[in-house]
Design a protein that fits this description.
The protein folds into two domains: 12-71, no CATH class; 79-196, no CATH class. The chain has 197 residues and is an alpha+beta fold. The protein has helices at 33-41, 58-71, 79-87, 97-121, 129-150, 154-159, 171-196, and strands at residues 12-16, 22-24, 29-31, 46-50. The chain has seven helices and four strands. Helix 1 (33-41) packs across helix 2 (58-71), helix 4 (97-121) packs antiparallel against helix 5 (129-150) and helix 5 (129-150) runs antiparallel to helix 7 (171-196).
Length: 197
């Protein structure tokens, strides 16, 4: 079954009906969450609309796919990550998180592509284990940085807040610390990109 959109840059439209059935307008057929999951893996862009209200419910459906995959035992999201993610709802820094996560995932995906390319290139000869190990370390460093960024002010509480006075850190101090961490992360991402080139 072809899932390609009719226009090159136009996403496939999926309609969700009241009976919870999903209808792919590009193929004129009903699909399941498993079909949509495979479309994501195949790089096919799609949007999901409520058939009655025409509301865009793509985010909710993608979240449902993640829940279904996690329920099957495909556990990609550590419990600590989920707890930290939930704690950011309604948090003052919530506005930064989506773009930050998107950037980190793009960087992680780029490193994975580089690793795959290195594996394919070296199939004719001795496999470059050192290169593979270096890329793995880079990916782990990126993930560790990401997890630290979810709790940017945890270290300040342990250190006693403002310059060891025992007072809690001010909002300005917290923002300054966060800005320094974002700058450091940006430098690391730039270094990784330059090394790839």
């Amino acid at each position: 079954m072809a899932n390609k959109p009719s226009a090159e840059n136009e996403p496939v439209t999926i309609k969700k009906y009241a009976n919870r059935r999903l209808y792919n307008t590009a193929t004129s057929s009903y699909v399941t969450l498993d079909h949509l999951c495979q479309m994501v893996k195949d790089g096919v862009d799609f949007v999901v609309y409520d058939a009655k209200t025409s509301e865009d419910i793509t985010r909710a459906v993608l979240t449902q796919i993640i829940v279904e995959e996690e329920a099957k035992g495909e556990n990609l999201l550590p419990i600590s990550f989920l707890r930290q993610l939930i704690s950011f709802y309604g948090h003052g820094m919530q506005w930064m998180l989506p773009k930050y996560l998107e950037t980190m995932m793009q960087s992680f995906a780029a490193n994975q592509e580089q690793m795959t390319a290195a594996m394919q290139k070296s199939m004719g000869g001795m496999f470059g284990l050192e290169q593979l190990e270096q890329m793995g370390k880079k990916n782990m460093a990126l993930l560790e940085s990401t997890m630290r960024m979810f709790s940017p002010f945890a270290g300040q509480e342990e250190e006693g807040g403002n310059a060891g006075t025992g007072e809690p850190a001010t909002r300005a101090d917290q923002l300054d610390t966060l800005q320094k961490q974002v700058d450091l992360l940006q430098r690391r991402l730039t270094e990784l990109t330059e090394k790839k080139d």
